[in-house]
């Protein structure tokens, strides 16, 4: 899931990546809203809230919503810098290391959610998750050539609408240029991603209601498992290539 890039990826790999990471993102985003009343990955809503508060002259809340957007962008920028540095060094496991970094930071955020004073808890939780959602979304966008997005559903909902329109034209014989199988593959991908985000959100709220920050530790563990499997695969491949080179 976290090794092949761009056109080297197939539908099965994209589906596995989209469903697993979208479920985790959905759980974190919904749990954060349940816990503190703010979304960590919905930048459209946060920009709109900034506009609303700024128009009313409520500058402190307005700056908070603007900060969420800036922190999300910062997370995406850190991911881009990390991936670009890894690719320059020929590190094919750099995407896995990016997700592993997210897992480590999420575990640290979970610890902070447990031990921080109440007046700091909501701010740190939302801003921390915004950074991590930006990091994750940028990583997934880069590895899939923007076919997969996992931290929000607006773009995917738009893509589903587009693909449904294309499918209708194909069925009516008015679009002979588009491959019907490719159209259905895109519908499956976007539909499965949204359903995974939805299911993760429901599960996230239910689990957070029972064990609080334990949800963040669970999500951190899931991300670690996904990343370490890819890292192990990359290292195994490197050892095999090294052995082949030595034998030659």
From TrEMBL:
The keyword Membrane applies. The chain crosses the membrane at residues 15-39, 59-82, 94-117, 123-140, 189-208, 214-232. Pfam families: DUF1275. Keywords: Membrane, Transmembrane, Transmembrane helix. It comes from the Bacteria. InterPro entries: DUF1275. Signal peptide: none annotated. This is YoaK family protein. The lineage of its organism: Bacteria, Pseudomonadati, Pseudomonadota, Alphaproteobacteria, Hyphomicrobiales.
